[in-house]
């Protein structure tokens, strides 16, 4: 074993070991050995990347199925900086609604939590796709953290392969981390594992929020809050 004890970026007393070769090995044999090891390393790395890509593709395919086949069109990134204005912000909102009221503006794809003094907290939301949008007024009748999700019969009839049930906390659960239930309907204001779907019209009538935003809204509104959908 040959060792290099020179101080080339090493700490005192640190050594570097070199590959061993038999005394009779030719330069060509040594080069073949190096190339073989390099090819093996590259192949292992490619296999790792392939498995990660396959898992990501399977996850995307599952989310697409839960969106009802709608394509993924958002540009959300891991920092939440996408230039769309979908994050929570305080805006001017003069009008007739009492503080504490939630106003869902389907056309704008925004949800407003009315504050005092003519202002509101505004959040980006995903809304129902064509044929699944609705208007009306309801109360929040229940709130759940890590809600379970069960596919309604109507969805199963449209999509035979949709998962029948997902437990709360499942990273692919369509309800995300929090849900607020509206009246006696099947509709909810809820989070989503697919942040890119926020700002789109692709749900079955529920209102989707990014998990960070739905958690913020969840702690601000009690059961009994009025929700106006327009």
Given the structure, what is the number of helices? 3
User: Which sequence of SSEs, written as H and E, runs from N to C?
Assistant: EEHEEEEEEEHEEEEEHE
Overall radius of gyration: 27 Å
As for the number of domains, it is 2
Number of strands: 15
**End-to-end C-alpha gap:** 78 Å
Question: CATH homologous superfamily of the largest domain?
Answer: L,D-transpeptidase catalytic domain-like
Q: Which residue ranges are poorly predicted, with pLDDT under 50 across at least 5 consecutive positions?
A: 1-19, 52-61, 67-81
Structural class based on helices, strands and sheet pairing: alpha+beta
CATH class of the largest domain: Mainly Beta
Mean pLDDT: 79
Biggest sheet features:
9 strands, mixed
Taken from the alpha-carbon principal axes, the silhouette is globular
Strand order of the largest sheet: 3-6-5-4-15-8-11-12-14
User: What is the CATH topology assignment of the largest domain?
Assistant: L,D-transpeptidase catalytic domain-like
- Name of the CATH architecture of the largest domain: Beta Barrel
**What is the share of helical residues?**
10-25%
Beta-strand share of residues: 15-25%
